[in-house]
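Quick illustration, no need to memorize.
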Amino acid sequence: MTETVMGLLPLLILIVLMYFLMIRPQKKKDKQIADMRNSLSVGDEIITIGGICGKIVKTKDETIVIQVGADKVKFEMMRWAVSSVTKTSGR
């Protein structure tokens, strides 16, 4: 019995170590990104995952409408496509 426990101990230590070094930080990062995407509001300046920079002019449940370029072209995109917020609207 003791030999079995001692044989499994390195495996258990490896699993716990992997959780604290890989899984937990990734879940924390995913939660921060989800919070950022859920808190988007009109006036925020964003960068999409495709590299497009624009300003939010309208928000919906799952989508946002952004305005880009000198011609102020507007298009609708999914919230999950937002990579980062560069300027907030000063809520």
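The two ends are 62 Å apart (CA to CA).
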